[in-house]
Amino acid sequence: MIRTLRVTIRVQNQEEALHFYTQRLGFEKRDDRSMGADRRWVTVAPKDDPVLEFVLQPSDWFEGEERQRHNELVGKDPTIVFQVDDCQATFEQLRIQGVELSLPPTRMSYGIEAHGKDLYGNTLVFLQLSPAN
Fold it and tell me: Mind telling me which residue stretches traverse the membrane in this protein (predicted)?
């Protein structure tokens, strides 16, 4: 049985990313443990989601060419979509918290969505779905 879904977000600086996701997006830190050799396993998640966690994977986990490949992918992860109850309120709260926002709440055929970026340029979509017919 699958209990937890973990999605890896490539980051340059794990502590900086931890601060962004907890202080600006309002996530909670779920796990923070040593992996030996100055490495940390750090996960964050939306406070009310018992299943989803994001692994903050820094470049310093890797050496040589593998580190270079990792660095080239920072900020180019897939778009992350968060379903929200109130897109306008979420947008305003994120703006106050200093999140870079690129699309204000915009009505679409399926609901209302706004776009932002994390501190490395990964696209964040905040989606308020229209009620089902």
Answer: none
